[in-house]
TrEMBL record:
GO cellular component: cortical microtubule; microtubule associated complex
Coiled-coil ranges (or none): 369-417, 541-682
PANTHER family on file: CHROMOSOME-ASSOCIATED KINESIN KIF4A-RELATED, KINESIN-LIKE PROTEIN KIN-4C
Ranges where the Kinesin motor domain occurs: 6-354
Gene Ontology MF: a single term: microtubule binding
Keywords: ATP-binding, Cell wall biogenesis/degradation, Coiled coil, Microtubule, Motor protein, Nucleotide-binding
Any Pfam family matching the protein: Kinesin
Record protein name field: Kinesin-like protein
Subunit structure: Homodimer.
Binding site for ATP: 85-92
């Protein structure tokens, strides 16, 4: 009978209300005519149904979406209608939660009531119906019973910030998980209703007690999540069963329809609804929808955080469970609400991916009930027997005795099992504690990393951690094995005790085996710390859930036992037996008295020879015999009654013991629930801190990347400058060599032409010209070399600074690296470096211009016009002498220059080596950064995977 049903999603767009029109709001939602598609801004979404705007009229919601659910309800399926949306978007209006019973306000709930009772009316000849309603609200993460008579006096809460009364007058309802995995509310009022009017009055009564307040957007805003539940049990009437399949003849179909009106989903700030904790429920609902809506996670069987809030626990069956569900996303078309509307639409879109698995809810206890009924009948027959004065045998009494002994035996077994469970529970608690200790250690380690411990130190501890992980995983496996053992033990016992084990258990076992095998797979893999932690948490949660389920099952069994004890109204029975014993006693006394009287009469008969007296005597003796046998009979009866009374007393004591055990199980359960709550809270905190940490690491990673890019670019620039300078230095050296060569040649020429005139003078002039050029060049080269020396010194400084930087980057801790002061210092250093580079470039530019000037001068000197300035030979000689002097001094300086050149070459070599070292460091840094980024990505991946 199982079939996967997607959650169907409808969007209801209400018209602009007068307040919005007054504010000049415009419609920002477009509905594609004839298509269930809405468009807002640049986003388009497709749903199962769209109402309002250009879509279908709103009144059609019931026929399209809800009527099929009513059909399903009558066929034994659970169903849910859930209204979601921001405040003032029309949830209450659409659901009709504030229906008072008069007329029809067009909402879904009045139509549901109408439809159910019309249908019941047509089926009443063939089917018996038992209908109950409950109405609860979730306010500040507590569940309250809106139909509880204590609450009748509660008035509406004025203003969203006023708290509702709590305490003894308004006790919160506890959520309990039934053995079959269903959720029940212990002690909630389930009012039996027979007519539509009765149902409506319950709804109106509950609505009056609901928490409402005034917000900026809705004067009558619901500040709590309300769930109106209609439970329906139906059974075919025996006389109408001819021809009906025997298997289903005794079926009792029990189904529930939840009508959910959630509180507004908007951000509290905008509406002024501060201090409300319904957000927690909505947030958890969003997480549940995300987890169920994500196909990948669903296929992988990821953890669905139902336990994060009361709302999600209560809607556990409606979302991804045994229910047919329709979600109605209510939106306002006003452009001022566009952002919230978009959020609602996204939320609703995700909900469409949720797959439910609705099954027909046949009462699993129907057969057991039948057995109990026959037991009651049998007991009643027994009672009749003892009330009457028939002489029937004591077979029934023997049967009763046998039953009591059976019950006592089963009770003993249960007690033993309970003891075992208690032991297991203690062991589990111990293990949970151990896990917590390990967790704390890991958290401390993370803290150490964050607080600046170097990677080397962490690496040093890595082996230890790995061992820790291994022991940890071993523990988990051990725990899982034990759980399987306990579960199999429990199921075999249950089989023996009550013969009522579901097929579901096998399914559970299979799924658990799967879980364990996946756990083993996992343990064999070498995952990172976060993954381990998340898995550990979900395994622990699942284990605790299983524990809780087991306890619930146990509790149910005990309660059923208890019911069996109490079903045959023991006090009445006891009173009857006691009365009977007294009656028998009285009767016995009366008979005894009669016997005594007869004996006296017998003794008074004086003459035994008298025939009359003889006859009378015989008559008396006969009567005496009869009476004595009657007394004996009565005595027997009295003994039997007394035995029965003792038996009853024993069973009363057994019931008392059972009651105590129930109490103990209950308190254990409460403890377990608290433990689960604590565990999930701790995990939530851990997760939040991890997320924060990852966020910081990401930020740091980005900063590192930026720094790296900057340093790399700088390094590249420096390399280029260095290369250029090296080339220039090589060029200069070459040019210097050429100059030296030409100077040598000119001196040779000068010495060979020293004795002649004419051409000799010309040669001298040529020499002078050469000398001049040489001088100019020498000057230029000198200045150039001076610049070079300066530049190289600067470069050397830069290189050593860069090296320092690299050292800092390599060894400094992440935290220091990201402190603002440190970043500022780095920035200023980089800025200084850049300035220096700029200065070097400008020097080079200046040098280039100087060079071009020198070349220009050279050109001028080599031109004809220069000869006009050398008027006489004397001048020329004078100049020549001067030049000779200059040449000799320049020769010396050239030698110096050569030495300098060699020195510079050595320096250049040094510099090149440093550059190589620097590049190595840069590569190392890049590798470290890549590793860091990989780690961050990995962590982000895992966190998003577990979210
Ligand atoms: N389809 C509709 N047609 C006309 N008016 C509507 C419609 N839906 C809602 N309204 C009006 O909008 C206002 C807000 O509606 P309602 O109280 O149902 O919102 P809500 O979503 O339940 O708000 P809250 O979350 O604050 O309880 C009411 O005045 C209601 O009459």
């Amino acid at each position: 009978m199982e079939s996967p049903d997607s959650v169907r999603v409808a969007v209801n767009i209400r018209p602009l209300i007068s307040a919005e029109l007054l504010h000049g709001c415009t419609d920002c939602i477009t509905v594609l005519p004839g298509e269930p598609q809405v468009q807002i801004e640049s986003h388009a979404f497709t749903y199962d149904y769209v109402y309002g705007g250009a879509g279908s009229p709103s009144f059609a919601i019931y026929d399209d979406c809800v009527a099929p659910l009513i059909d399903a309800l009558f066929h034994g399926y659970n169903a849910t209608v859930l209204a979601y949306g921001q405040t003032g978007s029309g949830k209450t209006y659409t659901m009709g939660t504030n229906y008072t019973g008069e007329g029809s306000n067009g909402g879904i709930i009045p139509k549901v009531m109408d439809s159910i009772f019309r249908r019941v009316e047509t089926m009443k000849h063939s089917t018996e119906f038992l209908m109950r309603v409950s109405f609860i609200e979730i306010f500040k993460e507590e569940v309250f019973d809106l139909l509880d008579s204590h609450q009748a006096s509660l008035s509406k809460v004025e203003g969203a910030s006023l708290p509702k009364p709590t305490g003894p007058g308004r006790p919160p309802i506890q959520i309990r998980e039934a053995g079959n995995g269903g959720i029940t509310l212990s002690g909630v009022t389930e009012a039996e209703v027979r007519t539509k009017e009765e149902m409506a009055s319950n709804l109106a009564r509950g609505s009056l007690s609901r928490a409402t307040g005034s917000t900026n957007m809705n004067s009558q805003s619901s500040r709590s999540h309300a769930i109106f539940t209609i439970s329906m049990e139906q059974k075919k009437i025996a006389s109408c069963l001819s021809g009906v399949n025997d298997d289903t003849a005794d079926d009792i179909l029990c189904a529930k329809l939840h009508l959910v009106d959630l509180a507004g989903s908007e951000r509290a700030k905008r509406t002024g609804a501060n201090g409300m904790r319904f957000k927690e429920g909505l947030l958890a609902l969003g997480n549940v929808i995300s987890a169920l809506g994500d196909e990948k996670k669903r296929k992988e069987g990821g953890h669905v955080p139902y336990r994060d809030s009361k709302l999600t626990r209560l809607l556990q069956d409606s979302l991804g469970g045994n229910s047919k569900t329709v979600m109605i996303a209510c939106v306002s078309p006003a452009d001022t609400n566009a952002e919230e509307t978009l959020n609602t639409l996204k939320y609703a879109n995700r909900a469409r991916n949720i797959q439910n698995k609705a099954v027909v809810n046949r009462d699993p206890m129907a057969s057991q009930l039948q057995a109990m009924r026959s037991q009651i009948e049998q007991l009643q027959a027994e009672l009749l027997f003892y009330r009457g004065d028939g002489n029937a045998s004591f077979d029934e009494l023997q049967i009763l005795k046998h039953k009591v002994s059976l019950l006592e035996a089963s009770n003993g077994e249960l007690r033993q099992e309970l003891q075992e469970r208690r032991l297991t529970s203690e062991q589990l608690a111990q293990r949970a504690l151990d896990a917590q200790v390990e967790k704390d250690k890991l958290v401390t380690k993370i803290e150490l990393v964050r607080n600046g411990k170097s990677w080397d130190e962490i690496d040093f501890n890595q082996n230890q951690d790995f061992d820790l992980m291994k022991t940890y995983l071993l523990k988990i496996q051990e725990l899982e094995g034990e759980l399987i053992r306990v579960k199999s033990l429990s199921s075999s016992k249950c089989k023996r005790i009550s013969d009522c084990i579901d097929e579901d258990e096998d399914e559970d076992e299979t799924s658990k085996d799967l879980l364990f095998s996946s756990g083993n797979d996992y343990s064999s893999s070498d995952e990172i710390e976060d993954n381990e932690k998340e898995l550990e948490h979900s395994t622990l949660q699942e284990k605790l859930d299983l524990e809780l389920m087991e306890l619930d099952k146990r509790l149910e069994q005990k309660e059923a036992e208890m019911k069996r004890f109490t079903s045959s109204d023991t006090s009445v029975l006891r009173q009857h037996y006691e009365k009977k014993v007294i009656e028998l006693e009285l009767e016995k006394k009366a008979l005894q008295k009669e016997i005594d009287q007869l004996r006296q009469n017998l003794a008074n008969i004086s003459s035994p020879s008298d025939v009359g007296a003889q006859k009378l005597r015989e008559e008396y003796l006969h009567k005496l015999n009869v009476l004595e046998s009657q007394v004996a009979e009565l005595k027997k009866k009295q003994d039997a009654q007394a035995q029965l009374l003792r038996q009853k007393q024993r069973s009363d004591e057994a019931a008392k013991r059972l009651q105590e055990e129930i109490q103990r199980i209950k308190s254990e359960k409460v403890q377990l629930q608290q433990k689960i709550k604590q565990e999930s809270e701790q995990f939530r905190l851990w997760k939040a801190s991890r997320e924060k940490e990852v966020h910081q690491l990401k930020k740091e990673g980005r900063r590192n990347e930026y720094e790296m890019h900057k340093l790399l670019a700088q390094n590249q620039r420096q390399k280029m400058v260095l290369q250029r300078k090296t080339e220039e230095a090589a060029m200069d050296t070459k040019r210097l060599k050429e100059l030296l060569e030409s100077r040598k040649a000119s001196s040779r020429e000068a010495s060979s032409a020293g004795n002649g005139n004419g051409p000799g003078v010309q040669a001298i002039l040529q020499t002078v010209e050469h000398e001049l050029e040489v001088t100019v060049r020498v000057h230029e080269v000198r200045s150039e070399y001076e610049h070079q020396v300066e530049e190289r010194a600067k470069m050397a400084r830069e290189v050593s600074r860069l090296k320092e930087e690299s050292e800092i980057l390599k060894h400094s801790e992440l935290r220091d690296y990201h402190e603002t002061m440190s970043a500022e210092a780095r920035n200023s250093r980089i800025f200084a470096l850049e300035n220096m580079l700029a200065a070097t470039s400008s020097t080079l530019v200046a040098m280039a211009s100087q060079l071009s000037e020198a070349e220009e001068r050279e050109r001028t000197f080599s031109g004809r016009g220069r000869w006009n300035h050398v008027r006489s030979l004397g001048d020329a000689r004078h100049i020549m002498n001067h030049l000779f002097n200059l040449a000799s001094s320049s020769r010396c300086s050239l030698r110096d220059k050569e030495v300098h050149c060699r020195e510079k070459d050595a320096e250049m070599k040094d510099l090149n080596e440093k550059v190589v070292v620097l590049s190595g460091l840069t590569r190392q840094l890049a590798a470290e950064k890549a590793a860091l980024t990989r780690e961050v990505k990995l962590k982000v991946g895992f966190i998003s995977y577990w979210c």
